[in-house]
Specification:
The chain has 116 residues and is mainly alpha-helical. Helix content is 91%, strand content 0%. It is built from two helices and no strands. Helix 1 packs antiparallel against helix 2. It starts with a helix and ends with a helix.
């Protein structure tokens, strides 16, 4: 297989990887949104039901919602990692396009000069 054909195949594979990566990002973002809502709801309920000074009620609410805050933070981290993965795929596609273009230009040059 020629270098040009190999580059084209690589570009095709990278392009096929993008759709599932974007779908996964959508799923992870949905999980993140629900995790955030769960945390904020729990925090608000715990704050409203707590007693004492404002600071005491805040601390009690944080303690009550700590697990949900961690879940939200992990979900947010997963979304950011998936976004970075997609950005890396786009970069690899761009690099592949540049290589493909350079290889095509080289082949055109070689054929126009008679292969010499």
């Amino acid at each position: 297989m020629s270098e040009l054909a190999q580059t084209y195949v690589s570009l095709s594979e990278l392009s096929r990887e993008l759709a599932p990566a974007v779908n996964k990002l959508r799923e992870l973002d949905e999980i993140r949104v629900h995790a955030e809502a769960d945390f904020k709801s729990k925090f608000a309920r715990a704050y409203r039901e707590a007693t004492g000074s404002v600071e005491d009620r805040k601390q009690q609410a944080w303690l009550a919602a700590d697990g949900l805050w961690r879940t939200w933070s992990l979900a947010d981290s997963a979304v950011k990692m998936q976004q970075a993965h997609i950005k890396a795929l786009h970069t690899r596609v761009d690099v592949g396009r540049s290589i493909f273009s350079a290889q095509r230009a080289e082949m055109a040059f070689v054929s126009s000069t008679g292969g010499a």
